[in-house]
Amino acid sequence: MAQKDIEVVGRDRERLVSALQLAAVGDASSLRIVYKLTSAKLFGICLRICGNRQAAEDILQDVYVKVWRRAGSFDSQRASPISWLAMIAHNAAVDWRRAQHHHGTLDDDAVLSIADEAPLADAVAEQDEDRRRLLSCLDGLDESQSSVIRRAFLDGMTYQQLSDESGTPLGTIKSWIRRGLQKLKECLNDG
Amino acid sequence: MVDPSPPTPDRDTLAAELALGLLEGTDRVEALRLCLSDPAFAAAVETWSLRLSPLLHAIPPVQPPEHIWKAVEARTGIGLSRDVSNIHSLRLWRGGALVCGAIAASLALFIAVRPSDLNAPAPMAVSQLVGAQGPAIMAIAFDARQGVLRLSTTSLPTGDKSPELWVIPEDGVPRSLGIIGTEGQELTVDPAHAKFLKSGVTLAITMEDTASAPHKAPSSQPVLTGKITVI
């Protein structure tokens, strides 16, 4: 990647950090900046996990209301701003799914157009050290472990849903995930 | 297929399972309840969420419809006025639970210079000042147009001395920006000093005698220091 692009990414990140800090002291225009920089990304996450456009729109609203209320708890020493925001969106979308008792597959046309993440992952990985480390640690796991962890997290699926979908016994799925998570933690802590 | 019994989950694995969204029904309810009763567990859930969050960066962005922002404005009340009082929301500095539990609030003070045009590519300056002893939380936003610093509440020491804010530019000479209260307030910056609030300069707070302020020079070690960076 060109040096210039890396600088742009770095600057956006710092802008986002400062906007979150300003939002924390009640600066309304800063929330607007956070929204402009991140809403498409967070909407993508909500859509992917909910699989329902209307729900994703409602959740996205909730996410930014939460960001406004809780910007003060963002700690730039601990997390990148986009990871922190993505976490909020992910949790809100998973909360919604668990409240729906959805056991089916994703059901909205909008979601069908979402591409496989692999090619994009490579492009993004260049920009993000945390992501690069995570992907490299996931690569170190058994294929069965890493794929089921990714699937759970990226699609908001429960143990039971993963088991039903793959026809793999529940206990096996749990073993894969728990052993995988243990190894993942060791790998991330070593790095 | 043989179904081996999975390893019994320890607390940290349970935290990961909640963070991943794997749990449902009573398992999920139990884990959420644990979040409320056990701050260490809540912190572990958040640690796992942040660990895995970079995976989400691969999901392609989708532009949300216009009306979402309007709704956010309406629900937060920020659409009513450009200059919603900062003071009422300062309590937010105490932070809140995002996954399920409290996040340790960062001990930081920062100053930010707002861009005069919000759509401009942001000449913002931000600094995090870290306390030398014990947790202190303060946020300062600098409105360059009005020359006003807006200060949040703080847990700086109380007593017969007051916190005095200093800017220390390239020449290394501290200039007093004035005494700040321990409650949220506004502080008008001397225009002669406002020009120092830029990239690379150090900000500091020392505890000083109230009556004789502002002072020519600090008399004690700073309780908070940090540097401004312009973005």
Mean pLDDT metric of chain B: 68
As residue ranges, the low-confidence spans of chain B are 81-128
Structural class of chain A: mainly alpha
Spatial shape of chain B: elongated
**Low-confidence parts of chain A lasting 5 or more residues at pLDDT below 50?**
102-126
Task: Describe the global form of chain A.
Answer: globular
Q: What fold name goes in the CATH topology slot of the largest domain in chain A?
A: Rna Polymerase Sigma Factor, Chain: A
Average pLDDT taken over every residue of chain A: 82
Brief characterization of the structure:
Chain A is globular, with a radius of gyration of 18 Å. Chain A has helices spanning 3-24, 28-50, 53-70, 81-100, 109-112, 118-125, 129-139, 143-155, 159-166, 170-190.
What would you say this structure looks like, in words?
The complex is a heterodimer of chains A (191) and B (231). Chain A is mostly helical and 191 residues long. Chain A folds into two domains: 1-112, RNA polymerase sigma factor, region 2, helix turn helix motif (Rna Polymerase Sigma Factor, Chain: A); 115-191, Winged helix-like DNA-binding domain superfamily/Winged helix DNA-binding domain (Arc Repressor Mutant, subunit A, Orthogonal Bundle), CATH 1.10.10.10. Helix content of chain A is 77%, strand content 0%. Chain A has helices spanning 3-24, 28-50, 53-70, 81-100, 109-112, 118-125, 129-139, 143-155, 159-166, 170-190. In chain A, α7 (129-139) crosses α10 (170-190) and α9 crosses α10 (170-190). Residues 102-126 of chain A have low confidence and may be disordered. Chain B folds into two domains: 8-104; 106-230. Chain B contains five helices and ten strands; from the N terminus they run ααααββββββββαββ. The longest helix of chain B has 14 residues, at 39-52. The interface between A and B is large, with 94 and 82 residues.
